[in-house]
Amino acid sequence: MIRHPVARPRIAVAVALAALLAASAATAADTTAKAGFASAATAAQQWQKDAVLVNVSTLQADADGKAAKWGYMYYSPKSKRGYTVDVKGGKVVETLEVNPYVRDAVGEFVDSDKAMAEARKSGLKIKGKTPMSLMMMGQATKSPGVYWSVSGGIRKGDVSVLVDGKTGKFSYKQAMP
Length: 177
Description:
Elements: H1 7-29, H2 37-47, E1 52-61, E2 69-76, E3 81-88, E4 91-98, H3 112-121, E5 130-137, E6 145-151, E7 159-164, E8 170-175
Antiparallel strand pairs: 1-2, 1-5, 2-3, 3-4, 5-6, 6-7, 7-8
C-alpha cells in the first residue's frame, strides 16, 4: 500500500492521463470514410481545382465500417493525373500525385458504417480487420454504378459483398471457391 502523501495523487493523475490518452487514441482510430472526406477534399482542391473523388478505401476496416486511416483518390480531367490523400483522425497525413487507375467520379455516397452493416446483414463475416473500397464499377456493362466492395477474406467459403454506394442496399455476394 502506498502511504506517501504525494504518491497517491500523482498515481491518480497518471492513471487519469493514461485513460485520456487511450480514449483519444481510440477515437482517432474509429472513423468512417465520410469523417475524413472534408479534409481530403480540401487537399485535393488545393492540388487541382477540377479534382473529383474517384475512390475511397482502407485495408483495415473493423466490423463497424470504421478504420484508423482512409485513402481517397482524386482525378483531375484537366491534368489527367491522380492524387491520393490519406487521412487519419480527420487530418491529412500523406498526399501523392499518381497515374490514375480509375477516373469515374463517385459523387455522393453512403458512409462506410452503413455499407458494412448491410454487408454483414447480407452474410459477410468479419475476422479482424478487412479491406473496403468504394468506386465506380461495371463501366463495360449496361448497369454501371458506384459500389462499396467489402472482403470477408480469401479462404474457401469466405464471402465478399458489394453494396450499392448510393443507396446502401445489398447488390451482390460471392463466396471464395
